[in-house]
Amino acid sequence: MEAAPFTPPPTSSFKTPSISSSSSLISLSKNFSRNHLPSKFKSPRNLSVRASNDDSVVTLLDYGAGNVRSVRNAIRHLGFQIKDVQTPKDILNARRLIFPGVGAFAPAMDVLNNTGMGEALCTYIQNDRPFLGICLGLQLLFESSEENGPVGGLGLIPGVVGRFDSSNGFRVPHIGWNALQITKDSEILDDIGNRHVYFVHSYRAMPSNENKEWISSTCNYGDEFIASVRKGKVHAVQFHPEKSGDVGLSVLRSFLLPKSSLTEKRTERKASKLAKRVIACLDVRTNDEGDLVVTKGDQYNVREHAEKNEVRNLGKPVELAGKYYEDGADEVSFLNITGFRDFPLGDLPMLQVLRCASENVFVPLTVGGGIRDFTDSNDRYYSSLEVASEYFRSGADKISIGSDAVHAAEEYLKTKVKTGKSSIEQISRVYGNQAVVVSIDPRRVYLNDPSDVEFKSIRLTNPGPNGEEYAWYQCTINGGREGRPIGAYELAKAVEELGAGEILLNCIDCDGQGKGFDIDLIKMISDAVNIPVIASSGAGAVEHFSDVFSKTNASAALAAGIFHRKEVPIRSVKEHLLKEGIEVRI
């Protein structure tokens, strides 16, 4: 069944039909040429640049992909108004221009080429007008990219954007808080000092003699790559200032108000490398009265063990997200455990939660639950890509796929064919694999002999209830209610091949028990894949976090109940990790 045209959110910037919404980008991404490298842009057709006179206005080049809402919120938080680019002339007339590139390189260049925006952008930059490119907004300035390519870029900076090398043991995508090495006066980086900033990308540009005059900072992740560039009034950063907390807001402030600086310089522990992440998770559902609440399960059961058997209510999602941001959470994850299966997409309660939370939470937001193809109660069909697009436009930085990923992996392992139709493949193709998290919900199945099953099993650190020495981890769907004939190991390997950029690894047996993470499971999976793994389920004390980071290759650890019930504050977790010599963002 063909999907009806997707209605863009009110904040969608371009009004021309070819680029008016995320679905336009989806359409363009199917048609871009991967073999033709356009020549470097030259000064086009005597286009003139004339700046507007309103100091409070920031021009935003939003081409309709990914989470640009967070950039908008950060700009407004700093007291500025936003003018959206609707025509190439708006670029040429901008007093200051921000280009928050999100998604994959080729579809973005397709939009720029098909709308004339690329030509205007080159003219604007070549005239040394105030410009800030973010993430993909930096990469597009280079000559070309290997992502789905080669694909030609704007050609303003010499060099090719290539994929990180995972053969040296570094996980790709590069996700998390890392340190900068500032190489020259960057102006906008003056207030960063020794603190971490947030990166999420699989491709990077490398320093060379040809582009060294542009480089203002580098970052080390396996190799030294370009973290920011500056020439005159033109700036671009590979990291996300709008997701880097108060230090990121200082970068935006320095660009928008070049003479400004923080009055108070913080003296903090020096950031030296990629930090381990501490993530706060909010399980969100409606209670029996119809209110949206944060709850927490005990082995996935969210109802109180009492006579009324009510849904456990631990607070309101937007308020808790703001609190965890202030407490130092490196990311906030929303898990929609109701599913809201009968709602039209535009009315999903989680969309409003994301929109409100992103107004004041300037760290990454992930949302999971219901990311799949579906038909609502009005008989309106939505593809998983359309669903994800609306979540991104509402404030999500990453989406988490659960049951749908299990079905996709089962089909892939059976046929050995990538159809391109699974939610993982569709979303990663348009938004990049760094935007796709797969949530795995396994439970232990104890064994006396590992040869009893076809799935990967492990020798347990602690024997099973009847002395069993081995176990395999059976994946489940539908909130743990249905077991599937696939193991966690097999699922993790399959979804990585399909295009997932990160794995959220739960364990039903440990959920809500407070006895620690399942180290055996997490070690097995984090050793098996080359993408980041988030450890989840079982945290009950600060020692459990240092335990999982010291004994496994987990990149992050997630907790819920201990934070909601104020049993263990996030700050206490980070202070403990620092004492144990584990790098964290402070």
Strand-helix topology:
Layout: H1 22-29, E1 57-60, H2 69-77, E2 81-84, H3 88-92, E3 97-101, H4 105-115, H5 117-126, E4 131-135, H6 136-139, E5 142-145, E6 151-152, E7 157-163, E8 174-178, E9 181-182, E10 197-201, E11 203-205, E12 215-221, E13 223-231, E14 234-237, H7 245-256, E15 277-286, E16 292-295, H8 317-327, E17 331-336, H9 349-357, E18 365-368, E19 374-375, E20 381-382, H10 384-393, E21 398-401, H11 403-415, H12 423-431, E22 436-440, E23 442-447, E24 457-459, E25 470-477, E26 482-487, H13 488-498, E27 502-505, H14 519-528, E28 533-535, H15 542-551, E29 556-559, H16 561-564, H17 570-579
Parallel strand pairs: 1-2, 1-3, 3-4, 4-14, 5-7, 15-17, 15-29, 17-18, 18-21, 21-22, 22-27, 27-28, 28-29
Antiparallel strand pairs: 5-6, 7-11, 8-10, 9-12, 12-13, 13-14, 15-16, 19-20, 23-25, 24-25, 25-26
Keywords: Amino-acid biosynthesis, Chloroplast, Glutamine amidotransferase, Histidine biosynthesis, Hydrolase, Lyase, Multifunctional enzyme, Plastid
Active site: 135, 240, 242, 283, 441
EC number: 3.5.1.2
Total number of helices = 17
Annotation, overall tally of beta strands: 29
Strand order of the largest sheet: 2-1-3-4-14-13-12-9
Helix content: 25-40%
The CATH first-level class of the largest domain comes to Alpha Beta
Mean pLDDT, to the nearest integer, reads 86
- Structural class by helix and strand composition: alpha/beta
Q: Which fold does the CATH topology of the largest domain refer to? A: TIM Barrel
Envelope shape:
globular
Strand content: 15-25%
- How is the quaternary structure best described? single chain
- What radius of gyration results from the CA coordinates? 23 Å
| Total domains | 2
